[in-house]
Write a structure and sequence with these properties.
With 344 residues, the protein is of the alpha/beta class. Helix content is 44%, strand content 10%. The protein has a four-stranded parallel sheet. Strands 2-3 form a two-stranded antiparallel ribbon. A hairpin with a 4-residue loop joins strand 9 and strand 10. Helix 3 packs antiparallel against helix 14 and helix 11 runs antiparallel to helix 12. The chain starts with a helix and ends in a 19-residue tail after the last helix.
Length: 344
């Protein structure tokens, strides 16, 4: 529905700007109790689990359409504003990060937590996380840590911060969108001019320790480095423990993804991720399909059986080898048959 609307609005001269928000619903699940407060927590991972077990072709279609939508937003010719109030995770990040203007509030809770379910930072995560300064992208991708507005601004994952109480007035103000020409981002900046938007500074984040550890060559090296200082550094200790709980295989895939994406353009980065998704659910080179797949097992443990005890394979980061990781980055399709071949 979002893709269809955006394609229609793209050529509609009556549409000057597109804005996205997520409504907070009442506890009873009825009508929206508040027009803001819950941007998007991501896709229905239980559907991924069911579809993978039943070999439902809709799973492949879903991911192809999702990446096409991500690309459409990134390349949209009209200003696009994301009101990133409340939870902004996974698929929500995919929607928001392509926007011309990304607004966060004191209620923003942002994360890319995919490694916790044996996946990788998808929906363009390789692209936008790899553009964070230093090796912050590796840290956010591997740990899935949740950050707030000030950290998002410091990371370059948001453009402006506003109090959530200001959002209704900003939304209503879109009716007076200025008639300016030029790039979508410039139009968004023009709209904001004179509104005295405060930009929250978080100059002490990330700490130099992020680059020191997450700039290392391998996940095993990162964890070893963290554990070497864990006795005197609570952050290093907590971070190492968190990484030890994630899928060793997908941590290694995710690290490689971020580092490859840093050298790719948007379209190639999205095509690479589409390849990765296919391999996650059809891990041919390891002979793992259906329930035996790393991602399906991760979803089972977190959202289906909810035992939070995934049986990762391999279980230790030290046992992951290059021949397990490298084939994830070989496309299962020829260039002419790639599902995202038409991205431009």
């Amino acid at each position: 529905a979002i893709s269809a609307a955006l394609r229609v609005w793209r050529s509609d001269p009556a549409i000057r700007v597109v804005a996205m928000r997520g409504s907070m619903h009442s506890a009873t699940g009825g009508a929206a109790a508040e027009p803001f407060g819950a941007f998007c927590a991501g896709g229905d991972i239980r559907f991924f689990h069911r579809a993978a077990l039943s070999a439902d072709p809709q799973l492949e279609d879903f991911f192809t359409e999702e990446y096409q939508l991500n690309h459409l937003i990134h390349r949209y010719p009209k200003p696009c504003i994301a009101f990133m109030d409340g939870v902004v995770m996974g698929g929500g990040m995919g929607l928001a990060q392509g926007a011309s203007l990304r607004i966060v509030t004191e209620r923003t809770k942002m994360a890319m937590p995919e490694t916790a379910i044996g996946l990788f930072p998808d929906v363009g995560g390789g692209w936008f996380l790899s553009r964070c300064k230093g090796h912050l992208g590796e840290y956010l991708a591997l740990t899935g840590v949740q950050i707030g507005a000030a950290q998002a601004l410091a990371a370059g994952l948001a453009d402006v911060g506003r109090d959530s109480g200001d959002l209704n007035a900003l939304w209503d103000g879109l009716a007076h969108w200025p008639l300016v020409s030029g790039p979508a981002g410039s139009a968004a900046e023009h709209w904001l001019a004179g509104k005295a938007l405060p930009r929250n500074d978080h100059r002490d984040w990330p700490s130099p320790a992020v680059d020191r550890h997450f700039g290392l060559a391998s996940v095993a090296g990162i964890i070893a480095s963290l554990e070497a200082t864990a006795g005197s550094d609570a952050w290093a200790n907590d971070t190492a423990k968190a990484l030890r709980k994630q899928s060793p295989l997908m941590l290694c895939v995710s690290l490689e993804q971020i580092r490859r994406a840093r050298k790719l353009g948007l379209e190639d980065a999205l095509r690479m991720e589409r390849d990765l998704v296919r391999h996650c659910f059809h891990t041919v080179h390891l002979g793992r399909y259906g329930a035996a797949g790393e991602t399906v097992e991760g979803i089972r443990a977190l959202a289906v059986d909810k035992d939070r005890s995934p049986k990762w394979n391999p279980q230790r980061i030290e046992d992951v080898t290059p021949h397990m990781v490298d084939p994830f980055f070989r496309s299962p399709w020829p260039a002419s048959g790639h599902p995202l071949r038409d991205l431009a």
